[in-house]
Amino acid sequence: MTTILQPDDTMIPGVSEPAKSRATRRVRGLSDRTIAWLFVAPTIALLLAINIFPLVWMIRLSFTSLNLSMSYLPLRFVGLDNFTDILTDEDVWFRLQTTAQFVIWSVALQVVIGYGLALLINRQFRGHSFWTTIILLPMMLSPAVVGNFWTLLLQPQIGPFNYLISMFTGVPPSSFSMTGQVSLAPWTIVLVDTWMWAPYVMLICLAGLRSIPDYIYEAAEVDRASAWRQFWSITLPMTVPFLMLAVLFRAIENFKMFDMVNLLTSGGPGSTTELVSITLKRAAFEKWRTGYSSALAIILFVTVFGAANIYVKALNKVKQR
Amino acid sequence: MRTFNWLRSSTATTVLGTALLGIFGGGEAAAQGKQLTLCWAAWDPANALVELGKDFTKQSGIEMKYEFVPWTSYADRFLNELNSHGKLCDLIIGDSQWIGGAAENKWYVKLNDFFDKEKISMDDFVPATVVGYSQWPKNSPNYWALPAMADAVGWTYRKDWFSRPEIQSAFKAKYGRDLAPPKTYDELKQVAEFFQGREIDGKKVYGAYIFTERGSEGITMGVTNVLYNYGFSYDNPKKPYQMQSVVNSSEAAKGLEFYKELYKCCTAPGMTNAYMQEGLDAFKSGQVAMQMNWFAFFPGLYKDPNVGGDKIGFFVNPAGPNGHFTQLGGQGISVVATSDRKDDALAYIKWFAQPAVQQKWWQLGGYSALKAVVDAPDFPKSAAFAPQFLESMGIVKDFWAEPSYAQLLLDMQKRVHDYVVADKGTAQQALDLLVKDWTKVFKEQGKQVASQ
């Protein structure tokens, strides 16, 4: 522990007695504990003001009928009505399914591609640093930039993506719309999210790969284990905790994905790519259904928190093995 | 335990205290000079308003500051500001549908006394704009805004393509009539089908551009132009809020089917989430023969070097089998109730309401709603699109302007987009679900909703 020591002014030679007694009184006035609290208090106050208080307030609002576009109406306590409305609403369940599918597919692809990239980048080759930087570029971009950039790339008439597909398949480039067709739009958001975040998974996996001691591979070489056998028996098991961590981070992030999908498809066509975060935003800040959206936010929070807790327990078990 | 003896010096405590005061105790640094902030959407007419506002500054000495937000986030941004009783805007040019909520929530200053005092009469303004932008409740003498920017949906077409002899003869050979700006939606579809995929000047072109945007209000503002003319109404005029068999009548369903057919047969690829800007881009790039859009953009299009001037023509939203209406756009200007500069804001409205200012507003590219301007004998000749604008303002209908309009609008966006773009269900099912959604919203609002 660091100790900040300052010469006590009562010890300074030549300081007069009245001055010493004044200094002593000041010392008694502000104890170490008080000063420590003085430092911590702003942080605690900020935490209470911008995290805890809104959370408590949101819980309170979730039991009310508050609609900010009609704030002149009396605020009614509606008990669990908002929660019942949400949990019995087919549309909400459909949005949750859409979100689950997006999370599962995008995270699965990111793990496979990210892990593959990590295995490649883990080898030493010419231009290694350059390619690492190139691969990492997408995750350094803002989701808003990615959304707009891909919207242009996927534009059926001028976007290069359709021309690329056309080159390989012979299908006319303007005959399909990646963001506008019900069959393609869900895959489009998975594709763009994977493009952006597979490098992130790669980074985590790379950390895992670099943490495996060389002597284990050397021992395997002595035992004449094939490269495939080394991968299955050493590399994969020893990087599983890292992979699981990547899955946790990406799953939580994708569960609350909003910006990129909103820019790419606005949840459309129809409601095909309307993730639950878009539903929440629309309910809270477009329809102004504050009570209802507070309840939905709580349900989502509990879902993510619960799932993440179960997952972390599983992760800890894997680590202990 | 750490020790912080250094902090015990009175100097350090004073410095810390001052810093904390600076962070938490700072208020407005100094009294500001006379300045008004006007909030609106970022689009062509806003630039005209900035130009116009310079005259106000010259006359009054009040500086004008502007807060313009793109249409896609205009409602989100400003409704949030109004909801939170913010002080960003002194004056706001708010969308017509906000008027109910703004009045009921007391976001706007009621202007009746001010109008009486300054002798500003609402009889001097185009009636549709008074009902659409100023009154709440509708058709009652309660005014919350001055009609500022009259607007409606209209159509542009490529006059140069329409006038080419080879195109005219091909059209006549196919449909047995002259190629001309369509007067009915059936004619419009024929013209759109005719142009769809046709090669003009070595370039493949498409029939029509229509609104399909999902996120804000786009597809609703587009589809209503067809629905009204097929027999759709928001509710039974004799029984307010009675929507069953009115919103989802078989005629309305046919109108919705027609919009989908038009979207499928005659629009450019990829127009699945397109609104004003995409329409302008499509037209300016020579991609479409006809474009649905707001009159507000027409002055800019007319000036466009590539497609403006003699190359562009304008026509009123075509009629349908059961009527002839068009979607109202536009906004009124209001004083924000939380403004600290209400008197100056009212002075701006007084200045803006003057006939000479309104005349200049029209000349600069804004759309005046003052009868003295639009009913002037030379008005139809004052711009290429003026006659169509005038006719359109006589046949406008608007979306709900209830305080719950945002919920009603988003419900319609979802149901219509689901059917038209995402091919989900039938037109009848989409409208039936819409009635269900709207009934729920009105019931939450405490309205009596009769089922028949």
UniProtKB/TrEMBL annotation, chain B:
Cellular location(s): Periplasm
Coarse class of the protein's main subcellular location: periplasm
SUPFAM superfamilies to which the protein is assigned, alphabetical: Periplasmic binding protein-like II
A Pfam family assignment: SBP_bac_1
Keywords attached to this entry: Periplasm, Signal, Transport
Domain of life, source organism: Bacteria
Similarity annotation: Belongs to the bacterial solute-binding protein 1 family.
UniProt name for this protein: Extracellular solute-binding protein
